[in-house]
Write the C-alpha cells for this entry.
Amino acid sequence: MRLRATIIVMLGLFIANIAASDSQAEAKSKMQKHSFGKTEDGQQTDIYILSNNRGMEAAITNYGGTVISLKVPDRNGKFEDVVLGYDSLDGYATGKAYIGATVGRYANRIAHARFILNGTIFTLAKNDGDNHLHGGFNKRVWTARDVSSSAGQALELTYLSKDGEEGFPGNLSVKVVYTLTDQNELKIDYSGTTDKDTVINLTNHCYFNLAGQGNGDILQHQLLIRADRFTPVDAALIPTGELRSVKGTPFDFTTETAIGTRIDQDDPQLKLGRGYDHNWVLNRGTAGSLSPAAQVYEPHSGRVLEVLTTEPGLQFYTGNFLDGIHGKEGKVYKRRYALCLETQHFPDSPNHPDFPSTVLKPSQPYKSTTVYKFSTR
Ligand code: GLA
C-alpha cells in the first residue's frame, strides 16, 4: 500500500517536472516584447528580445530597426552585452552616432549631397558638411512582425520611404529581417522594391566591443579583413575613385592584426579618418554570394565575431568620433571604445560609374544579407 502511494507521488512529481520544463522551454521559444515608450510625435515603439537555445539574446527595437543589445558568451560561458547602446528611446532619438541602427536609404557618404540618375540631378539632405551621410532610416518607426521559424526567432521590420524623402526618387518599400539562429548568428536579410529608378545601400551600424560594451577601447581586438584593396578617401572622407592595394600599408588586415598596432602611424589616410574609417574592397568568389568578409578576436574574453556578407564592401570604423557618449548602464563611450563593420556598397557609388552599381530599378528587387556570427577561442 505504502509502496504504491510512494510510486504515485513520484509519478506525480515526475509529470509536474516535465510540465514545468515544458513551459520554460515554451517561454524561451517565444520572442519577448515590451514597450520602449512613445516618440515625441506619439508613435509607439517596442523592444523585441530574440533568444536561442544557447542562451544568446538579441534585443531589437522597431525605432530605427536598431539592435539595442547582444548578449553573447565568452570562453568560460559568461554572457556579456557586446554592443553599445542607450538605456532609453530618447538616447536613440537625439543620438548622432547611428548606434546599432539600420542605416539607409544610402549608407555612407554621397559627395556634395547630389547625384545624377538617368540624366536628372537629385539633391539630397546635407547632414555631414557638404555631403549626405547615412540617411534617416535610423530615426523612423518601423512596422514589426514576429516571423520566427525553425531557423530561429526572427523579427521582420518594414518601412515605406516615400518618393522624395531626403531627396531620393521613388517610393521605396524596405524590409529587414533579423534572425537569431542556434549557431549564435544574428542574420540580417534586407530587401526592397521601388516604383521609380533610385539608389539604395543598406547596412547595420552596430558598435561592437567584444570585451563587453563600455569596457575600454578596442585597440587590442585582432582583426582580419578579407580584402586586398581599399578605397582611399579625400579630406571629406569621400573615395577618390582609386582602388588601392593594402600591401605594405596600415590597411593590410589580410592576416590577423591587433587594431592598435598601426592606428596612430603617420599615414595620410589614417590622418584623414582620425583612425580607420574606410571602405575595404572585399575579395569575393561569386558576386552576390554570402562569403566571409572579416573576423575579430578579443584575446581576454576569447570572443570571436565573424562577418559574412553578400555585399562587395566593408566600412571598418574605429569609433573615432565617439566623444564621451553616455550609454547603457552608466557606461561612457570614449574615442575608439568600439568598432563598426558595416557591410555595404562603396561610399559615393552613385557618383562613381566604375564602382559596383547601387541603382535599383522597379523591375529588380533589392536583396542583401549579412551574418554576424559569434563563437569563442
Ligand atoms: C560611419 C562613418 C563615420 C561616422 C560614423 C557615424 O561609419 O564612416 O565617419 O560618421 O558612421 O558616426
In short: The two ends are 57 Å apart (CA to CA). The pocket of alpha-D-galactopyranose is lined by residues 97-98, 108, 133, 237, 277, 315, 317, 321, 340, 342 (CB under 6 Å). Residues 18-27 have pLDDT under 50 and may be disordered. The longest strand covers residues 366-376.
